[in-house]
Amino acid sequence: MTRVRADGLVKRYGIYTAVDKITIHTLDGEFVTLLGLSGYGKSTTLRMLAGLIQPDEGGIFFDGKDATDLSPDKRTSSFNA
Q1: Domains annotated on the chain, with CATH
Q2: Considering Cα of 65, then 32, then 51, then 77, what sign does the dihedral take?
């Protein structure tokens, strides 16, 4: 079962696109690392997954449940780690 799924995440700041259609699928027990140069959207992607900022496009799912619009505190109380 897919544990964490991010489908087509996009985040823009004005005319600058920080994250452009990233898709991540992880299975239970997998370890994932984001690598890239400074300014390539790693922190922005993690902030979207954590619920600290909202994506402009795309969706975030934990254990198949939509978490895209949930605040960080709702994510931790609604989903098992």
Answers
A1: 2-75 (3.40.50.300)
A2: positive
Predicted confidence (pLDDT) per residue in 2-59, tens digit: 789 999 999 999 999 999 999 999 998 889 899 999 999 999 999 999 999 999 999 9
Half-sphere exposure of 3 (CA within 13 A, CB side): 9
Q: Which two tokens stand for residue 27?
A: 């299975």
46 Cβ contact partners less than 8 Å away, ≥ 6 residues apart: 34
Interatomic CA distance for residues 46 and 3, integer angstroms = 15
pTM: 0.87
- Name which of 57, 64, 59 is nearest 80 in CA terms: 64
